[in-house]
Amino acid sequence: MKISILIPVYNEAKTIEEILRRVQAVQVADEILVVDDGSTDGTRDVLAHLNGQGPIRVVYHDRNQGKGAAVRTAIKNANGDVLIIQDADLEYDPRDLPALMIPIYENVADVVYGSRFLGGPRRPILFWNMVANKILTLVTNVLYNNILTDMETGYKVFKREVVASMPLHAHGFEFEPEFTAKVLKRKVRVYEVPISFNPRDYSEGKKIKMRDAFIAMWTLIKYRFVD
């Protein structure tokens, strides 16, 4: 299977080179597809230098459209049989990627979630962020009759065939609940694997706000009844 790692990026000039180094170091990817979502902090200059080096390929948005839009662009442009979403902010450790791939290789799953709440090592998360994540995951399980532990995880691995006919509309951080809702409605085989987690706080540039939790809640409810 050919593996594509999809990296949506917006204003991550301080971390983009390091995350690309870490991803390449685990030697999982046949292709690393970076989508720059209209960065204005110098990220694009860094990417221009890295584009074409080894498996790295860069696609640019002319303006900022949101993480969901960047992921959708990456999916559309990726060549892999298996796609992995990798955030660029160093919160998720690429050394977890081989473990995330095992359920796919063993053909026991079509989608794999890296869960931050299954006992992996982690830096303590902000309390209210954890509460929001737990509530959203609980609502997901109630609405879609499942037992996920971490719906909002940024580490999602999936076979291309899963999204081949799946309409995805998200522009922002509501990508996570939309993707999860549609995966669960389609009865796709989902597997969770514990991952490590090193969250940054708002003083370090964390972009997710509490209002995104309300948008995610509405997204979960909406896609329970529409596609």
Structural description of this entry:
- The protein is 38% helix and 16% strand.
- It has 227 residues and is of the alpha/beta class.
- The chain has a single domain, classed as Spore Coat Polysaccharide Biosynthesis Protein SpsA, Chain A.
- The chain has a seven-stranded mixed β-sheet with strand order 3-2-1-4-6-5-7, sandwiched between helices.
- Helix 1 links the parallel strand 1 and strand 2.
- Helix 5 (127-144) runs parallel beside helix 8 and helix 7 packs parallel to helix 8 (211-225).
- The chain is globular, with a radius of gyration of 16 Å.
- The relative contact order is 0.17.
How is the topology of this model organized?
Layout: E1 3-9, H1 16-25, E2 31-36, H2 43-50, E3 56-60, H3 67-77, E4 82-85, H4 97-105, E5 111-115, H5 127-144, E6 156-159, H6 160-164, H7 175-185, E7 190-194, H8 211-225
Parallel strand pairs: 1-2, 1-4, 2-3, 5-7
Antiparallel strand pairs: 4-6, 5-6
Helix pairs in contact: 5-8, 7-8
What labels describe this entry?
227 residues; alpha/beta; Spore Coat Polysaccharide Biosynthesis Protein SpsA, Chain A; seven-stranded mixed beta sheet; globular
Mind telling me the CATH superfamily name? Spore Coat Polysaccharide Biosynthesis Protein SpsA, Chain A
Largest sheet: 7 strands, mixed
CATH class: Alpha Beta
Q: What is the count of β-strands?
A: 7
Strand order of the largest sheet: 3-2-1-4-6-5-7
The secondary-structure element order is: EHEHEHEHEHEHHEH
Query: Globular, elongated, flat, extended or rod-shaped: what is the shape?
Result: globular
Average pLDDT level: 94
Beta-strand fraction estimate: 15-25%
Whole-number tally of structural domains:
1
Helix content: 25-40%
Which architecture does the CATH hierarchy give at level 2? Alpha-Beta Complex
